[in-house]
Amino acid sequence: MANDIEYYTPLQTVVAYFSDANSKSEGDSDQAWLIGLRALVDLNYEFSGQVVTARLPINSNKTASFPSGVMSWTKVGLLNESGQTVTIKINNSFTKWRDLNPNRIEQLTADVNNSIASLTAAPLFLNYYYNGNYCNLFGVGNGLVQYEECRVDEENKVVILPADFGYDHVMFEYLSAPQKKDDYMVPTALQEAVIAFIEWKMKLAPREMYIAAKVEARRRMPNKKVTLQQISQVVRESSGMKLRS
Q: What is the number of other CB atoms lying within 10 angstroms of the CB of residue 60?
């Protein structure tokens, strides 16, 4: 006989479980469904968020726009020849000024050129060493801006890149927000925690019941468990690092 319990369960099904357990009518389903989305936001921030990968095109002003539904980002990088994402260094020296303006690069260039020329000519403390020479560059730590650097502007939802960035795309990994759609799928390990959250917000159970269900859900999440394959991988890597005679 086929097993109906799978990795994901529709949110509507979880809401139906709540309604059956609490003798709620169909008229309460919409409210419970919206509260269920709030539960998923809380659980995703805590531990259950699923990482989504997107390949973002570079805009003409050397920024990359966030995809929709980003709760928080986890990685920005480039795709190498092996299909791996190579992480880009975060450089918060990049200004966020006018990063949504399509003419951003043209408006920045004159300021950058003028400031560098004036600072290197001024009799100030020399804080930057490169190729045997010292000079002074404000806002620069241990190196000049290179291709593989960026800044993430979460407020304006863009990745800021240098003017000479030489690639057409960047890889962007992020935690996605639950979407308001009828077929939204919930990890089955979270369904009791979602039900407990709905009961708490609808004043049918205390908050402590939700906290307990959340702790249990964290324990049951598949990505928190150690698999035989992971153990085997550790053994193979360790065997290659031991001393040999």
A: 9
